[in-house]
Specification:
The complex is a heterotrimer of chains A (317), B (389) and C (290). By secondary structure, chain A is mostly helical. Chain A is built from 15 helices and 4 strands. In chain A, the strands form 2 sheets. In chain A, strands 1-4 form a two-stranded antiparallel sheet. In chain A, strands 2-3 form a two-stranded antiparallel ribbon. The chains are: A mainly alpha (317), B alpha/beta (389), C mainly alpha (290). Chains in contact: A-B, A-C, B-C.
């Protein structure tokens, strides 16, 4: 009951309070939307890590492919934006198919192999000029449509869209975790050999998680391109789409579902509003330091750390 | 009774005078969206200096109208450029000056157009920028201006073959291809070699030029680190060429001082010689103010920033006088611009482009930079043939 | 055409030698501790910037910067080790993320201290050409190729002959048994990191001498070093040289025969190819699939 009430309040704040109070401030809304984009990727990244047991350093690959597919479909084939966004996710899923051979590799090899793929996609995007516009990229990518008189392309509209997309991901993640697949994957985490004996097809499950993670990131990438209306290889496959979600997920607690989201919003807003003013050039240094501190002190994220602190206090008293 | 009326009268007159002065001393807010951090930070700060000088000069020479600049950092990133424009709009600016890099200017001017703000820049030479049909977008330079300068110089040199080594980014690639087309149209033999931003060692490319192309001139289209790499490789391999020509960011005092052994006789686009000499009153005022504010010589970035901003401020002043500020007056006044500036006579066509723009070519000579093309702007004799080795 | 290919091979081999120097530190730590230090490239870059500072402030040849670079980079490497040893669970993955974060700190630190300007040596001697028949190279390239081979030879000797070197190998194959034999694993791990730092310092000064540096280059170096480590296979020092030469020559040939726009693509494709076809690398022991 309590959880439901918190959820309700949370939804009320997100869907109601924020647009009403901050909706007119374009700048802050831009920041919030950007942080939710990072949050979406962080969630997908954490899903792959938790459910699939694979850490990836190349999620920018899915982000970029999703963005390009969606942009090209709307620009050149006149596909409606909403459909194109989903197809962007499908495109990213296709990219993950190409990565299947990498699944057999152990941790660090997988992580960096994905990075190699990201680099390769970026080069393809730069060279395949006729389709992707080459290094100059694509501009005037169609915006979100006007639905029932409400402009989804406006700041508030875009905010509501990305919020909904991310929340759908949260629900999906929850479903996967509590389903048969989730149970099997978590068992696999503990002992892959034992699960294989029981009949769980570990490689197939891992592949499924890769597909889901790729699809989610692709959709987020597609959202971003229709929100910014512009795309180029450097931006689409930028290392920041890798670094920021990782910092966000680790900070927020990547074993939890909401952790990465909360981490993303917090870290991004604090970075843009505070750190950037402290160190205009190189403020990401603080993010790096944050990542280092979190990994050492509390790899589970901020929440477990706080919980541990409060528990200690209680114990002392 | 009399005292009362006198006091009333005095108060009324004072109030009127004050309000009149307030209307006269109206301050106009202008936004500057500039990369102050990120990989374009250096060019951004150069442009920013030019803008600040323009503010100073305009406010000094204009009794009636004053300009105040609000700066927003776009972090050399497209998404942040949009955010910067929106932030400035929220703070009530009338127009935007600035922007560098077509990749950032495209989305930023998109946002400005949606908000109805005029956008003037000197940092985006990409052709696509002026093909969007915006009435609010203006730029004082373009790829054609660079093309005309390079082709003009090569024409003066009367060479028969050129090798173009260019970076696979939009601005550099477009310029390279346009120059190639024009030169081939004139009957020159042109070899082209593209390179990726990640390339560090240019020896294989220079070797290809030396052994296969055997051209008389090498044209380099890239950025500072590319020029350094290419010149280095050329110094090692010593291809049999008569000149090394580059485009932007090459004929600068910075390159002369940081890489003195790579620069001798190298050509690049340059508006002014170094040390700079200004012959017009406008120019002298610019140089003096620049020196006063920043204690150094102005460079091409400062000049561009100055010219674009002055044109904008003057348009704002004209629109204010005609009381058309809120009716798109600034954009209208800008489109009517026809003025001699440090970069030549500037006018804007239907698309907001400056068709008169022609750059100049400078050459590194003994640690200084002399303008060698076009002849009517030349400050020194061309040192041809000549290479750094 | 033949001349072109000959020059491409020559340049590729020299470049490969320098790549080997960059990759060696990463490979050593990986081989002995099973830890991938994603901040390794940044350590190399740090040394390069120190070389720049020494050259521009004191006006001397950058090779004289080596002592200072050694000091700073070795200390930094040991700092990295200290942070890594604080991790308790999920060592492999968490170390990966930790060193990734350290890499971000170093890259931005370099940006803060030295700004985004590009730099390279202004020493004329280092840039001067050395002509061997139809083949051209710079003094700096030849010099550091030799240095690289010498250091590799020294490292190989140290690992196989000296007491410390053999202790390092013992710890990497069986930590507990080594402890029983009286070896302090902590000490050998610190030594590994210090040696990796030493190699990074030389690599950095070399980089400054023949190439152009900027803050964002640290990440690129780490990726290249990792590719070479994979090519080599775990635990093989000669493998690193072969892998580096392979990468250097592949890049050079791609630029010469195809387009230089594809140079990075060639490296990445080579990397993935080896991962799929020869997961143990060219010389390594089987430990890849999990």
């Amino acid at each position: 009951m309590k959880a439901n009430r918190t959820t309700l309040v949370g939804l009320l704040v997100a869907y109601g309070v924020i647009p009403l109070t901050l909706g007119h401030n374009n700048y802050v809304m831009s920041l919030i939307i950007a942080s939710l984009v990072i949050g979406g990727i962080a969630l997908a990244w954490a899903l792959l890590g938790n459910m699939g047991g694979m850490v990836s350093f190349g999620h920018s690959a899915f982000f970029g492919v999703g963005a390009y597919v969606s942009a090209i479909l709307t620009l050149k084939a006149g596909v409606p934006v909403a459909v194109a966004m989903l197809l962007g996710g499908v495109g990213a899923f296709g990219a993950s198919l190409v990565m299947l051979p990498v699944l057999r590799l152990r941790g660090p090899y997988f992580a960096l192999a994905i990075l190699a793929y990201a680099h390769i996609f970026k080069i393809v995007a730069t060279e395949w000029e006729s389709v992707t516009g080459g290094a100059g990229g694509l501009s005037s990518v169609p915006r979100f449509p006007v639905l029932f008189g409400f402009d989804l392309g406006s700041k508030v509209g875009s905010y509501l869209m990305i919020l909904s997309v991310v929340l759908i991901f949260v629900v999906a993640y929850k479903w996967i975790r509590s389903s048969y697949y989730g149970l099997a994957l978590r068992a696999m985490h503990d002992s892959e050999d034992a699960t294989r004996v029981v009949g769980v097809h570990s490689t197939l499950l891992k592949a499924l998680m890769l597909f889901v993670s790729a699809f989610m990131t692709g959709v987020v990438g597609a959202f971003n391109v229709h929100y910014i209306n512009f795309l180029e290889p450097d931006y689409a496959f930028n290392g920041l789409w890798v670094a920021l979600p990782i910092v966000a997920a680790i900070f927020g607690g990547y074993r939890t579902i909401l952790g990465p989201l909360i981490g993303a919003v917090t870290v991004y807003l604090v970075d843009q509003l505070i750190f950037k003013n402290l160190i205009p050039s190189g403020h990401q240094l603080i993010l790096g330091a944050l990542l280092v501190a979190m990994i050492i002190l509390s790899p589970g994220g901020l929440l477990p750390l706080l919980r541990k602190r409060s528990r200690n206090n209680h114990a002392a008293s | 009774m009399n005292t009362f009326y006198k006091k009333l009268g005095l108060t009324a007159v004072t109030a009127l005078a004050l309000s009149a002065q307030a209307a006269l001393a109206a301050e106009f807010l202008v936004g500057a969206e500039i990369p102050l951090t990120g990989n374009l930070a250096r060019v951004g700060s150069g442009m920013n200096e030019g803008i600040s000088v323009a503010v100073e000069v305009f406010n000094k020479t204009n009794a009636k109208h004053k300009i105040k600049i609000i700066t927003a950092d776009d972090e050399s990133a497209p998404a942040k450029a949009i955010a910067a424009v929106e932030k400035l709009a929220g703070q009530g600016v009338l127009a935007i000056t600035g922007g560098y890099g077509s990749n950032n200017i495209a989305p930023a001017s998109d946002a400005a157009n949606k908000l109805g703000l005029p956008y003037i820049t000197s940092g985006g030479v990409d052709d696509a920028l002026t093909k969007r049909g915006y009435k609010t977008f203006f730029r004082i330079n373009n790829t054609q201006g660079y093309q005309k300068a390079v082709v003009g110089l090569l024409g003066d040199m009367k060479v028969k073959s050129v090798s173009i080594i260019y970076l696979t980014k939009q601005a550099t690639g477009d310029l390279a291809k346009d120059v190639q087309k024009e030169l081939e149209g004139k009957g020159l033999k042109v070899g082209t070699h593209a390179f990726d931003p990640a390339i560090n060692d240019f020896k294989p490319i220079i070797n290809k030029v030396k052994l296969q192309d055997k051209s008389e001139v090498i044209l380099m289209v890239g950025y500072e680190n590319d020029y350094v790499g290419i010149l280095r490789a050329a110094k090692v391999l010593k291809p049999d060429v008569k000149a090394m020509v580059g485009v932007w960011s090459l004929a600068t005092p910075k390159m002369a001082s940081e890489f003195p052994d790579l620069m001798p006789s190298v050509y690049g686009t340059a508006l002014l010689p170094f040390p700079a000499e200004f012959k017009t009153a406008d120019g002298k005022l610019f140089a003096d103010t620049y020196k006063k504010l920043y204690n150094k010589e102005p460079d091409y970035l400062g000049q561009f920033g100055y010219v674009q901003s002055m044109l904008l401020f003057e348009a704002i002043a004209r629109a204010a006088d005609k009381a058309t500020l809120s009716k798109g007056g600034i954009a209208q006044e800008l489109s009517k611009t026809s003025r001699d500036t440090l970069i030549g006579h500037v006018i804007f066509n239907e698309q907001g482009d400056n068709p008169n723009f022609v750059h100049r070519m400078g050459q590194h000579q003994a640690g200084k930079i002399a303008i060698v093309w076009p002849a009517n702007a030349a400050t020194g004799k061309i040192n041809f043939p000549g290479v750094p080795w | 055409m033949l001349e072109l290919i000959a020059q491409a091979l020559y340049s590729g081999v020299l470049q490969g030698g320098s790549y080997a120097l960059i990759a060696l530190g990463l490979a050593l730590v990986f081989g002995t501790m099973s830890v991938i230090n994603l901040a390794h490239g940044e350590l190399v870059l740090l040394a390069a910037y120190i070389a720049y500072t020494v050259e521009s402030r004191l006006g001397v040849n950058p090779v004289f910067a080596i002592p200072l670079a050694l000091l700073v980079v070795c200390l930094s490497a040991m700092l990295v080790y200290a942070l890594i040893s604080l991790i308790r669970n999920d060592r492999e993955i968490n170390t990966l993320i930790l060193t990734y974060g350290i890499g971000i700190i170093l890259t931005n630190g370099v940006l803060l201290i030295w700004s985004a300007d590009i730099h390279t040596t202004s020493s004329v001697w280092l840039q001067d050409a050395v002509v061997v028949g139809p083949l051209y190279s710079m003094h700096s390239e030849l010099l550091f190729f030799v240095v690289s081979v010498v250091l590799m030879g020294g490292l190989w000797w140290w690992l196989s002959r000296s007491w410390y070197g053999r202790a390092v190998r013992a710890v990497s194959s069986n930590r507990d048994a080594a402890k029983l034999m009286g070896i302090n694993p902590r000490l050998t791990e610190i030594i590994s990191f210090a040696v990796a730092g030493l190699l990074a310092a030389f690599a950095g000064v070399a980089l400054y001498s023949y190439g152009v540096i900027q803050p964002s280059y640290g990440h690129v170096l780490t990726v290249k070093a990792f590719i070479i480590t994979v090519l080599a296979g775990i635990g093989s020092i000669p493998g690193v040289l072969v892998g580096a030469l392979l990468l250097g020559v592949t890049e050079s040939l791609t630029v010469t025969l195809a387009s230089s726009a594809l140079q990075e693509l060639a490296g990445m494709t080579l990397f993935l190819l080896v991962l799929f076809v020869m997961p143990n690398g060219l010389f390594g022991a089987a430990r890849r699939r999990g």
